[in-house]
TrEMBL record:
The chain crosses the membrane at residues 16-35. InterPro entries: CAP10, O-Glucosyltr/Glycosyltrsf_90. It comes from Lupinus angustifolius (Narrow-leaved blue lupine). This is Glycosyl transferase CAP10 domain-containing protein. The keyword Transferase applies. Keywords: Membrane, Transferase, Transmembrane, Transmembrane helix. Residues 179-391 form the Glycosyl transferase CAP10 domain. One of its GO terms (molecular function) is transferase activity. Belongs to the glycosyltransferase 90 family. It comes from the Eukaryota. Pfam families: Glyco_transf_90 (PF05686).
């Protein structure tokens, strides 16, 4: 993942100086690296990932590089402060045109959300100080200069989140060569937003993460699972999406089980999921609530929890977990009617969904009755309710 660039050569230097200067540079760089490696290892912390800790398939081994020769270790420890980040002394500001352009007619409505995300910095712009302050909350920093990406790590992210997120930036650069503007951004990969709007009122910090809320400044970015979540056997969104579609179409909506279904992990400090367990009565509440046993699923290689096999019900419930849940897109892809329990967190795409058009909004304060009335109404009005489903 480390993208190292050669030290830039100044085109004006006399040519006979090059070999010796470069040799000297490389030598001192190597010495510096070997000298600093231990220091860096000890500073690269591992933050225990909020809700992930209790799941048996998740361990947080401190990264050790002991069994590798120092040179390899040096390469693995990506620390751009020594190698790559040419951090300009002047402020990095977002160009005026980014904000001031009016939404054009060919820009989907959905992009409004991005404007709203960046609104806190319309008048102040984003200065070097903003970025430096945001570093206190970030796991890594991504710098893109001239189409090249540099990454600086502060904390190890849980599982493979960092790798897939960085991979996503690389895909972006590959897909739009020459079109990605220079950027310097801080990213955190934990579940919950941290830049509280009240507390950071005087100086909003720009920090990217996988979700946000109305009470936070955090800027949502697509989560790693779009590019893969190998720890629980989830492939890229493109692959999963096609499979889910295929699995879902095996049975027409009318022939699906006329109940609302939820399967997941209720033990993630999510009150709404615990509450949901009380609705597990197909007669009384029209709902089937299943516990995903992660230990069992992990042992069986997640074969039985295959997403494409989970589209057999007319209604599928989305319940937030510890924060937003990556499951929303898989649920929506089922072609069932999605019952979303009024969410608190927003990820980058859920802001584009329209209530009572793309999904059915369930009242968390009247949870079981609200599910029941959706199921009853839908079963009696199949033609109307089916328009809620993505097909
Ligand atoms: C934000 O901070 C304020 C003041 O400390 C606090 O009352 C509020 O609960 C916080 N909001 C969130 C969503 O954590
Ligand atoms: C919900 O009810 C079904 C059928 O009675 C049962 O198999 C399942 O284990 C229950 N779910 C939970 C989470 O208890």
């Amino acid at each position: 993942m480390g993208l190292f660039s050669n030290p830039k050569q100044s085109p004006r230097s006399p040519s006979y100086l090059f070999p010796s200067v470069i040799a000297l540079c490389l030598l001192s760089l190597t010495v510096l690296l070997l000298y600093k490696v231990d220091d860096v290892v000890s500073r690269t912390g591992t933050v225990v990932g909020h809700n992930l800790e209790p799941t048996p398939w998740h361990v947080f081994p401190q990264k050790t590089f002991d069994d590798e020769p120092p040179q390899r270790r040096a390469v693995k420890i990506i620390q751009c402060s020594y190698l790559t980040c040419r951090y300009a002394a002047e402020d990095i500001t977002i160009s005026d045109s980014t904000f001031e352009k009016q939404p054009s007619s060919d820009c989907p409505d959905f992009f409004r959300a991005i404007r709203r995300d960046l609104e806190p910095w319309v008048s102040t712009r984003i200065s070097k100080k903003h970025i430096e302050e945001a570093q206190n909350y970030a796991a890594f920093r991504v710098v893109i200069v001239g189409g090249k990406m540099y990454v600086d790590y502060y904390y190890a992210c849980v599982q493979s989140r960092a790798m897939f997120t960085i991979w996503s930036f690389l895909q972006l650069l590959r897909k739009f060569p020459g079109l990605v503007p220079d950027v310097d951004l801080m990213f955190d990969c934990m579940d919950k937003p941290t830049i509280n709007r009240t507390e950071h009122q005087s100086m909003p910090l720009p920090l990217f993460r996988y979700c946000t809320t109305k009470e936070h400044f955090d800027i949502p970015f697509p989560d790693w699972s779009f590019w893969g979540w190998p720890e629980i056997n989830i492939r890229t969104w493109q692959e999963e999406f096609l499979d889910i579609k295929k699995g879902s179409r095996a049975v027409s909506w009318k022939d699906k089980v006329p109940l609302a279904y939820w399967k997941g992990n209720p033990d993630v400090a999510s009150p709404v999921r615990l509450e949901l367990l009380n609705c597990n009565d197909s007669g009384q509440w029209g709902a089937q609530i299943m516990r995903q046993d992660w230990g069992e699923a992990a042992r069986s290689g997640f074969k039985l929890s295959k997403l494409s096999d989970q589209c057999n019900h007319r209604y599928k419930i989305y319940a937030e977990g510890y924060a937003w849940s990556v499951s929303l897109k898989y649920i929506l892809a089922c072609g069932s009617v999605t019952l979303i329990i009024s969410p608190q967190y927003e990820d980058f795409f859920s802001r584009g969904l329209i209530t009572q058009q793309n999904y059915w909004l369930v009242d968390p304060l009247e949870l079981c009755p609200s599910i029941k009335s959706a199921v009853d109404w839908g079963n009696q009005h199949p033609i109307e309710v089916i328009s809620y489903a993505f097909s």
